[in-house]
Amino acid sequence: METSSMLSSLNEECKSDNYIEPHYKEWYRVAVDTLIEHGLEAYQEFLAKERVADFLAEEEINYILKNVQKVAQSAAHGTDNSYDDTSSSGTYWPIESDVEAPNLDLGWPYVMPGLLGGTHIDLLFHPPRAHLLTIKETIRKMIKEARKVIIFLF
Fold first, then answer.
1. What is the pLDDT of residues 26-35, one digit of tens each?
2. Within a domain: residue 81?
3. Which of 36, 82, 145, 146 is spaced 20 to 30 Å from 63 by Cα?
4. pLDDT in tens, 38-53
5. Angle, vertex CA 137, rays to CA 21 and CA 119, nearest 5
């Protein structure tokens, strides 16, 4: 027998009128980084500077501040096991990844001349106009629909 929770996940009509689709904003990440790295006062200054509303409840802020654990770097990397303040959630260390990078052929794909069509241009606006996707959503959709992706290394 299905529970109402199971049914609500199967049926889109069961969503509350107050339900807000999850979305990502870069300043969310930067604000939380600021809270973790520099404290509550710096977090509030960041929100004021960016002119955005506080998106965390007081309980959430207290929980984050109480439970944050700064990761120590290992001695194998030539450090003294102290936290590196230059790291944040926006920092990526590919050499220290625990997953092997895939061996990708980064050359140009073979293009059959007969399949080349006309140029296609999409004009995107931020913020998006009525009934249009945001730029990030459009890019995600294009990547999902792509037959080949070419990576440029700079």
1. 888 899 999 9
2. yes
3. 82
4. 999 999 999 999 998 8
5. 160
| Domains: count for the chain | 1
Distance separating alpha carbons of residues 71 and 60, to the nearest angstrom: 21
Structure token digits, residue 125: 């606006």
- In a domain? residue 153: no
Report if residue 150 sits inside a domain: no
pLDDT digits (tens, 9 = 90+) for 74-113: 544 545 444 455 566 666 666 667 777 667 666 666 666 6
* SS3 of residue 141 by DSSP: helix
Quickly list DSSP for 48-112.
HHHT----S-HHHHHHHHHH--PPPPPGGGTS-S---TT--TT---GGG-SSPPP----SPPP--
Rounded to an integer, what distance in angstroms lies between the CA atom of residue 73 and that of residue 96? 11
**Cα–Cα–Cα angle for 103, 151, 105, nearest 5°?**
30
Please tell me the distance from the alpha carbon of residue 132 to that of residue 107, in angstroms, as a whole number.
34
Domain span at residue 39?
Answer: 24-96
Contacts for 84-87: CB closer than 8 Å, 24+ residues apart: 85/37
The angle that helices 40-50 and 26-38 make with each other, rounded to 10 degrees, is 150
Asked whether the beta carbons of 48 and 39 are under 8 A apart, the reply is no
